[in-house]
Design a protein that fits this description.
Number of domains: 3
Number of helices: 11
Strand order of the largest sheet: 1-2
Number of strands: 2
Structural class: mainly alpha
């Protein structure tokens, strides 16, 4: 229970998302039960809303505790919780006090607080939900992932590490992103040797130069990699092609086998360039990862919510005084026109996310199945990682070529 009630320590992104989901479900259950009981008791809509806001106020405490520990993982103080939660708490208090107006004619103060809450909410989502915590211990505690600065789960020197690689040479820090284990503190490392030379020490290769682009040079006769699907012979280190021509070692994976002791996995290879906002919002082709899916969905939802609130605020007062119900038809048509693009954008984003899971876009309709469907869709699109490397719907949006070749390293 310390996850929800303690402000001490650090948590990484996974428990943060789990806790946020639990608290969101808690708020939904409180709202549903309060509304159900309120209707049976004969309460009006405004009274029910005010009661709901009062009942969910205690939930802000565990929210603050979870946020504080995630901020600690980002090496930021607990005080950052205040700007993240204060606008939402003030909006809830305004609604509980009956100062929020009506859904069609919200008060200016309530609209202002909602707008601030939306902006701060996006900031909090990026800061807490997507950005990685500091590697290694910081002033708030040890790394919840157990890593040390610059190393991915280091193992004892000369022993297999997380990638199964045996004892690396005296310069393991050259490739910390590959999980190379550093030598023990104070131990003398094997003497440096020429790159590629075998040693009597546990290291397979002596220290290799550290290229700026993050991967080790391939063997001398490995062909250079050109545009995806094409290969052009040449020796590594030869002059690059003329300006404007294909560049060596593109994002496509090399066909040459990996060599023992050589962390040449192209960890920094990138996927295709962003195809633009029109493709992102309206196309059902290609793949997107979880971060882009959630951020885009959130920005679009907030944008449409603001647009609908503005329309309701402008025309809501006039409709309340209307004597003929037919006068509401133009406003209903306007709402429909606003919702149609929002629905399509949601479908397009979801289809590309299903593609990243190597599933057909038709899976988007599983959300129409009551109860089970939406839960399944949420788990698949929000929590499960996409397939690594290219699949039948396109290249990896993360540009990840690592897993395709990790098994070749011995």
């Amino acid at each position: 229970m310390s996850l929800f009630f303690s402000f001490d320590g650090r948590i990484n992104r996974k428990p943060f998302w789990i806790a946020a989901l639990v608290l969101a479900v808690t708020i939904f259950v409180i709202g549903f039960l309060t509304g159900f009981i309120g209707v049976l008791s004969g309460l009006g809509e405004l009274e029910i809303n005010r009661l709901v806001q009062l009942l969910i106020l205690p939930v802000y405490y565990p929210y603050a505790a979870v946020m504080a520990k995630r901020l600690h993982d980002r090496n930021k103080p607990t005080a950052w919780v205040l700007p993240f939660l204060a606008p939402g708490i003030l909006a809830a208090l305004v609604q509980a006090a009956g100062l929020a107006g009506t859904p069609l004619t919200p008060s200016p103060v309530y609209l202002f607080l909602l707008a601030i809450s939306a902006v701060v909410g996006i900031w909090a989502l990026v800061e807490l939900g997507f950005l990685k915590g500091t590697s290694g211990p910081n002033e708030y505690g040890p790394d919840p992932l157990g890593g040390e600065p610059g190393y991915a789960q280091p193992a004892p020197y000369g022993q297999p590490n997380a990638h199964g690689v045996q004892g690396w040479s005296s310069a393991p820090q050259a490739y910390p992103q590959q999980g190379i284990a550093p030598p023990p503190g104070g131990a003398s490392a094997p003497p440096p040797q020429a790159f590629g030379a075998f040693s009597s020490q546990p290291a397979t290769y002596a220290p290799a130069p550290t290229p700026q682009d993050g991967f080790a040079p391939p063997p001398a006769q490995t062909p250079r990699r050109e545009a995806f699907g094409q290969r052009q012979g040449g020796v590594y280190g030869a002059p690059p092609p003329a300006a404007g021509g294909p560049q060596p070692w593109s994002a496509a994976p090399p066909e040459a086998p990996a060599y023992p002791g050589q962390p040449n996995l192209y960890a920094n290879a990138q996927g295709p360039a962003d195809q633009g906002w029109k493709w992102l919002l309206f196309s059902v082709q290609g793949r997107i990862n979880r971060q882009k899916f959630i951020l885009t969905y959130l920005v679009v939802t907030v944008g449409f919510a603001v647009a609908i609130a503005m329309v309701a605020g402008i025309f809501g007062g006039a409709l309340q005084n209307a004597s003929d119900p037919s006068e509401a038809v133009p406003l209903l048509i306007l709402f429909v026109l606003l919702y149609i693009p929002m629905i399509w954008i949601g479908v397009a984003l979801s289809v590309k996310r299903w593609h990243d899971r190597d599933k057909s876009g038709w899976w988007v309709f599983i959300a129409l199945i009551p109860i089970v469907g939406p839960i399944w869709a949420i788990v698949e699109t929000l929590f499960l990682k996409g397939t690594e490397g290219p699949n039948r719907y396109g290249p990896d949006p993360l540009g990840n070529q690592l897993s395709d070749y990790a098994g070749q390293i011995g």
